[in-house]
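REQUEST
  id: r-88c1
  op: predict_structure
  target: Amine oxidase domain-containing protein
  payload:
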Amino acid sequence: MAGPSRSSPSTSKQKRTKPTGCIEKLLNRQGNCVGFLDILITALAASLASYFLFTHLYRDSSIVVRALTIFFVLISILQPYNSTQLYITRHLADGSSEWEIFVVTDLDHDSKTADGKKWQSLAKRGTLKLAKDQKKAEVKWRDAEDFYLSTNIAAGGRAMELSDLAAFDGRLLTCDDRTGLIFWVENKQAIPWLIVNDGPGNVIKGLKAEWMTVKGEELFVGGLGKEWTTTSGEYVNDHPMWIKKVNAKGAVTHINWKDVFVRVRAAIGIQYPGYMIHEAVQWSDVHGKWFFLPRRASNDTYSEEADETRGTNYMVVGNEELTQFNAVRIDTDGNTRKGYSAFQFIPGTKDSLIVALKSEEKDGKPVASYIKQLQTVHTELLKKSGVKWTDAEERVFQWQIGNLEFACGAKLDQVSWRNWDQNESVALFAGAHALLTDGSGEIIKKLSEGTDIRASHVVDRIEWGSERAKAAVYCKNGKKYQADKILIAVPLAVLQKEHIKFRPPLPERKRDAISKIGTGLIEKVGISVNLKRKKTAFR
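RESPONSE
  id: r-88c1
  status: 200
  body:
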């Protein structure tokens, strides 16, 4: 990405294909196909005849106005929906496939130009290549073709914070999450098409439009999908839980999806005041299902600060009626700052593969976007075997996957299938399991005797390496401690996430080793105990 941004993908070409077809097909009639242009010419001739008839015989201009109005309305109604897709598949000699990919960005506050007269979004073009076996995909950006989409229409001093892309009625559309404007993109310009307002449609605020998808001949536009709250989580209204259904003529229907969004978050065990934020929703004609990749979710009350670290790794799939939902854990990279901001199905894969964008924010500002290829179907073995799992069995299976990844500290496709449980055969962890009847507090208390332990002393940085001065530890509470040597005994994840800074930085070989070692979320402490004694704290 050229600069931090949140982006939205679309596998598309930029040239709009003109509508084709005929009026007989539109009306499902039999017989010869009369071109739409023929009907247009005939209707225009009839209108001109009406004009001369009314103006010369009746001299009543109001009748003329009504006649011409009826004519243009009739033309608008008769024009068919353009279902032409905007992508072209290139099949390469090695069996791989390529598509043009186009993304728009949400630059947040940086969308305002330096002169303060316009707002803009960075647009990028590239190529998405999918291997023959469909197991690997890569994107190559053509940075020299970057350009900006701009507008001078704003709300509250902000605009052009584009969130998603969709091919609808033969045009490439994008939406602004500040103004509620939907633009169509052509010739490097964003042309305003319509504005969708928030909630049930009777408020002056524009919809914070985060996602768009097409089902049939209608465009669905939605927002965050959670209750609108203050930055500290106090309830305000349900407006973001309304979605908009738009037809090709721009007519908008406001639909309350609160029950839908409640069911989606319940699929992963979240109930209010917990929440789930949506920026990536798609309908699949192939599967006849709805797909949700939540951006963030938590069982805790919404907090603007904490929300940045609540990214999800879930895909929630719902039936067409939006009454039943199943959740699947995907792409568990362990970075909870990343959340899904958009995705599209890859053409030619029967909607079994998607290209998705994950975005990361810090202090309310976009930091980076990551593009990923993900499988939408993980049950290929079940399909081939003909075995049918119940919902309960599926949940147990997903729990086991999560439990293993939790313990191993990596996705299962990165874990050795031979050696993932090697600790079971090592003497250090061999033997029967035992529980402390009164908990482990007594052991910690005993081990800490005679040791100077300082609570509420979070380490901020360590200065070391100077031959003349002692090494120093600086705490966030302002305290400083010096010593000849410093022994660091912290979880590896603390070092990987750079919660402790080093001055000068650690040697490159150490930093490289720290970043590459896998680490689980379980801290293990080995204690040698003689269990043959009659009196013991273990059972």
